[in-house]
Model the fold of this input.
Amino acid sequence: MTNKIVYITRRERFNAAHRLFREDYSDEKNLDVFGKCSNPMWHGHNYTLFVTVKGPVNPETGFVMNLKVLSKIIKELVVDKLDHKNINLEVDFMNGKLASTENLAVEIFNVLNNALNEFENVSVHCIKIQETENNFVEYFG
Amino acid sequence: MTNKIVYITRRERFNAAHRLFREDYSDEKNLDVFGKCSNPMWHGHNYTLFVTVKGPVNPETGFVMNLKVLSKIIKELVVDKLDHKNINLEVDFMNGKLASTENLAVEIFNVLNNALNEFENVSVHCIKIQETENNFVEYFG
Amino acid sequence: MTNKIVYITRRERFNAAHRLFREDYSDEKNLDVFGKCSNPMWHGHNYTLFVTVKGPVNPETGFVMNLKVLSKIIKELVVDKLDHKNINLEVDFMNGKLASTENLAVEIFNVLNNALNEFENVSVHCIKIQETENNFVEYFG
Amino acid sequence: MTNKIVYITRRERFNAAHRLFREDYSDEKNLDVFGKCSNPMWHGHNYTLFVTVKGPVNPETGFVMNLKVLSKIIKELVVDKLDHKNINLEVDFMNGKLASTENLAVEIFNVLNNALNEFENVSVHCIKIQETENNFVEYFG
Amino acid sequence: MTNKIVYITRRERFNAAHRLFREDYSDEKNLDVFGKCSNPMWHGHNYTLFVTVKGPVNPETGFVMNLKVLSKIIKELVVDKLDHKNINLEVDFMNGKLASTENLAVEIFNVLNNALNEFENVSVHCIKIQETENNFVEYFG
Amino acid sequence: MTNKIVYITRRERFNAAHRLFREDYSDEKNLDVFGKCSNPMWHGHNYTLFVTVKGPVNPETGFVMNLKVLSKIIKELVVDKLDHKNINLEVDFMNGKLASTENLAVEIFNVLNNALNEFENVSVHCIKIQETENNFVEYFG
Done:
């Protein structure tokens, strides 16, 4: 019950369309580099997002941070912007960036770490995004 | 080892974009009926497909049907047409149909049941499609 | 797109406390029949509920039934009454009944089937409740 | 709480080695029919077994059947004979039979249905065996 | 086969009741801080516990530590004390502590790390507790 | 989109037979140390392999490394050697080593880290092998 450092993780989900391609590549080069992920008609995924926050346990509440509060922040700043959206065309924090899972993890980390600045003692430790059951990425800042 | 009826199921996966809407609806009505699934910029899913085939156990092989053969048929006739594709725009057997999971299950059932006609004794029992971890549909013909 | 019968399933979750026991049994008999599930101090589970509804596909929407509507009905009539509650003491439709998963499935079936009476053509096909990763029950009415 | 028919399922697991082959086939024919599953040096799986039992709910206990009792029967008659064993060489009820998942499901059904004869009102409804995350079989007797 | 450091993890499960509240808070304040988790009638979870132990690989056995031995220690010192119990009222190592998942992870870490003192070279690396499919905590000492 | 360090993970699967034993032990001692895993007739598992690679995000592609390339390397150098094989008898990189999951993780790490030498900037961060749903090991080099 002392202020030991504990890591808490909240899982959220969003379903989105995307496409991997570069405008400065020909269609052939896009296909060569990005494979079927470059399909001009789009494809999509059920993305699973794991947000891990690190901080001391508050001895009054037994919490690192109230997970309802964390979930509300993730929903407003991340999930509502991505869910049932087109990542290439409709997501402000991905504007001008390749819609890869790596870039998505980095940008979500930055959005949420900024948002947690107002909470003393806690910070984002890791953003993990699972794109398919076989592929996931992690970013630790 | 007699010819008892056994059900065998093969799971396959595909990632696709889609949109729920009717051209004869206004944008408002589409939003009202289909919610965020009507987003004109598309969204997508990791679809999981379960194909259940029913038949007697072949006493020579111990198989209802060779699952490698079944998997190959599903890949060629269903998965390759849907994976990393736009269900509304690029899938022949969904042409002119609302891209709902219900309709997808019915059409996949028909495609595969036709294909299995050449195999004596076996038939498609059920097509199950999982769209998200909370929603799935089943069609038994 | 004709009115083929399709089965749609919505998964919902609730976390609740319960205890298996009979007031007319001694503590010893309760322990003998119900094992550690009879602990007078309660224990609990993350219950997973699968509600399967059966009906024809509406050719206008491609839906058997709007899953958002189904989810709202399940939440109001079932999940809100069970989630973070004590099944023995706080759930009206379990009043006076042993808090077994079998009884829970039967009562949830009845509650939801009544509620779906107002929807033409659809009915509850199955209530499945998963109590642990090793145990689940199904009731088909 | 009346005697409605409910289906209860117990999941158990076992890890075993096996090989698909016929002694009356050449090595080439075994490879042709059974593929890499015919490897003479064996291979193995984490098998997951789902035993579904059907019966009325006992109004005194709220149970179709005590799952601890069911689990004990499955362990003694099925899991202990298969777990960490070679299905082709060491399992009495598979003696002389091709070690396919189909045959395994049929034989486990028979073993357990016999064992449940002593319980009034209940019977085995289905044996489901998951061999890999992509393949499973079901036998209903 | 040299003494490389490897991390081994054993998963165990327990089902328990709990309640988040402070006696020095009013009911209103408990509800405000802890939400529906403060329900005075209790609620419960299927907790999943992951115990990660770190150490060199023993060249004689190929093991960091025998997982059967580790599992037995976890069962005796942790799982048997929590399973089908009330975490607030019946678990000695949680006595006087808020029954949050964070506190549970810290206390389980301490219990198991003490127990592993008798084993040369190995120590507890992480205790991870999954409370729901959306929430988990990790403690590294 | 700068060269932040991101971790990408590819999951692959293989089904294999193995046995834990030492030739210099008696059967009794093998049974005592390795339990039923020492069964001379073999047993097997569905192994799940997670390969985590670490490196900067390439600003041109948005990738740490093309996952198709990574998957191809893992398949050729690891999965094809293990899948539907006997780990004790048929796998070159396990030759002369106890077929424990710990040793398997160390050897797969070495094989893949060598293979990634030709790729600038990336390296294997972790090999995780899940042997059953309750047991897994991790090796970080």
